Sequence to fold (189 residues):
Amino acid sequence: EVDDSSVEDVDSSDEVVDSSDEAVDSSDEAVDSSDEVVDSSDEVDDSSDEAVDSSDEIVGSSDEAVDSSDEIVDSSDEVDDSSVEDVDSSDEIVGSSDEAVDSSVEDVDSSVEDFDSSVEDVDSSVEDVDSSDEIVDSSDEVDDSSVEDVDSSVEAVDSSDEIVNDSLELLELLTLTFEQNILIDAPVN
Fold:
């Protein structure tokens, strides 16, 4: 019975050893997991540092944006001042435009008077055209008479040519007669 009990104790001891080994293995796994958790924590710290740096950059950009916003406000104030000046200039332009409209109305009235005068000129021109037509008709009659005069002049020229020819023949005869008289009157040597 003692031997049997010893065997059971040995078996129990082996089970205890096995359980201890399993506990050691579990402890090792826990250590490995702890190491992984530490590594993850380090990565988180690094990411946190990067996030802080990014936050600092964002704060710097925000400060620059505020400065730009202040410059925009200053520019806006200048634009407002310029707008007031533009309104004043616009009022002056409106006043000048009113004067221009008044002047344009006067020009229209003058143009109406000029148109009436032009209508009278057109009526006078029509009368002048009628008179010109009468003058053209008279001129045509004069042209017909001039053609007849030209025909008569041509006939007169022809007659003059005949008279000249006759005169030349008579001059030749007189010349011959004069030469013959000289020969008759010349002394005989």
